[in-house]
Amino acid sequence: AQGSIIRITNVGAGLITIAQNASESIRIGAATTTVGVGGTLTATATGDSIELLCYVADTTWVVLSSIGTWNAV
Predict the structure, then answer these.
(1) DSSP conformation letters of 16-73
(2) What CA–CA distance (Å, rounded) separates 49 from 55?
(3) pTM attached to this predicted model
(4) 17 CB neighbour count, 10 Å cutoff
(5) Phi-psi region of 44 (alpha: psi -120 to 50; beta: other; left: phi over 0)
(6) pLDDT of 5-30, one tens digit each?
(7) Do residues 37 and 19 lie in contact, with contact meaning Cβ atoms separated by under 8 Å?
(8) For the segment 36-71, what is each residue's pLDDT rounded down to a tens digit?
(9) Who's near 12: CB < 8 A, 6+ residues apart?
């Protein structure tokens, strides 16, 4: 739903990848993920954290804050 917030922290082994649904995209700074199921954000190190806001219901998420580097595809 619009206004929903999700917070994720990468504290375990391996790297977190945030996958999105069809018709969705995630904006992080000046970058935007590929629209649809092919788009992802991936942490690059343990300790990376991210806070996402649903800006437009069922289509657009924006990063409010992040720690570390996240790769947008």
Answers:
(1) -EEE--TT-EEEETTEEPPSSTT-EEEE-STT-EEEEEEEETTTEEEEEEEES-EEE-
(2) 19
(3) 0.89
(4) 13
(5) alpha
(6) 999 999 988 899 999 999 999 999 99
(7) yes
(8) 999 999 999 999 999 999 999 999 999 999 999 999
(9) 46
